[in-house]
């Protein structure tokens, strides 16, 4: 009975799997999407995210309120410094002594005595101010006296810059620092004469305040026991109450903000606030569990629960996605192999073509397409090779009858003119040319091409005698590279036809072969009559009506186009200055 039940379950399972496999791809993706989105998004996002975000906002609001209260306390301390500076600036004794100093010549005994009295007055007046470390008075001559507690490690340029700011003021308190070169907060105030309401300048009072002391005196207001406080400006750190390596400070513009981060293997809460009057940024940094320990424990348990559920869902979805995407991955793998042109290897990749859904149909069609493309490419490749070889031999065959006719005609007239020796040499050179031109290989080396060209030039020298002068130059070592056979000879023949045949003067024909870094340059230049501009455009476009057989330049261009993917072919000419043809082809060495 148990075995029968297990068999039924097995058959049901097989039917369900078959039904799922035959389901269209859209329904499969929708099924996975609704299972994943319905469970994970509803439970995790709505229950957890909304609750935690509200909690963090509340934590941030409370912490920021506490930090703002602390900033106000520090501001009150700084206002106390400003008030203290005002009281000392208008103090009756200080007013009398500073007025007297402006009326006494510096360096006298009376002047020194008044400065000494001024120092004792500063010491006396500063005993009541807890925020001020020391006070310095600087008279209008630049001489100064100070109370105890004034630092001497402030850079001179920092102090001079600050004094200039104080002197430019109209008597109000001026704050400066702290900076990298000045670790104190400086409060300066110009001493103005009030006794006669003249407001004459009587010097300046400089108050040195320890920022760390001011900040530390108010830190007890912070609620978190283990909190760390940082105060910094854009340039440097003003205050920090821990000596350990600092966590990453917040970046961005001024304004309140908060962040929950991991520091030294613990979670910390950081909130910051920038005071608008001083530009100082206050950062409160404390362990997340100090104030919200119980809530954190509940949150951790919730996170573990959601994490476990997420892992289970992830494994389930991965399994389901694998069933969907495996055939597509196999098909994609086969397509990637097809891109390399290896159709046989693509056919060997096992693909599930028995499925009845879209993937199965696509796989079957793809296999049929592979077979058809393989056959078509093979047939097309063979046809292209045959067509290319036939066309090349046809173009090469066009040259040989033309040249042979001209040469035999010249030999005929030499024999009739009793120039048998010249005719014999021409026949020998013609034999060399025919042996080379009848070679079934349509390609030759540059060295062999130049050798064949010299045979052709030897024939033409016998024909034209003093009417044509030829020169052949090579630069570098181009002879080892391969090129289409019978490329230079038609160019020289063309120069003779349009130059020497129509000129009454000597026609100079220069042939140059130059080895370049990546290519070989062929130039055939003559001093013939040249070509008019309109006619030259037709020559370049191969639309000009040819003279004679008219197969030279266009024939060479067609053979170059068949041989090379990229090459340069240029014809330049000016009336009365001759014509030059330049051909630049890439370097190719013989494989044999």
Automatic annotation (TrEMBL):
GO MF annotation: an example: phosphorelay sensor kinase activity
One protein family per Pfam: HATPase_c
EC numbers on record: 2.7.13.3
SUPFAM superfamilies, alphabetized: ATPase domain of HSP90 chaperone/DNA topoisomerase II/histidine kinase, HAMP domain-like
Protein's UniProt keywords contain Protease: no
Transmembrane spans: 30-52, 298-317
The Histidine kinase domain, residue ranges: 488-589
Domain called HAMP: residue spans: 322-378
Catalytic activity: ATP + protein L-histidine = ADP + protein N-phospho-L-histidine
Subcellular location: Membrane
Keyword terms: Kinase, Membrane, Phosphoprotein, Transferase, Transmembrane, Transmembrane helix, Two-component regulatory system
GO cellular component, one term: membrane
InterPro entries for the chain: Bact_2-comp_sensor_kinase, HAMP_dom, HATPase_C_sf, HATPase_dom, His_kinase_dom, Sig_transdc_His_kin-like_C, Sig_transdc_His_kin_internal
PANTHER family, sorted: SENSOR HISTIDINE KINASE YPDA (PTHR34220:SF7)
Annotated protein name in UniProt: histidine kinase
Originating organism: Candidatus Mediterraneibacter stercorigallinarum
Phylogenetic classification of the source organism: Bacteria, Bacillati, Bacillota, Clostridia, Lachnospirales
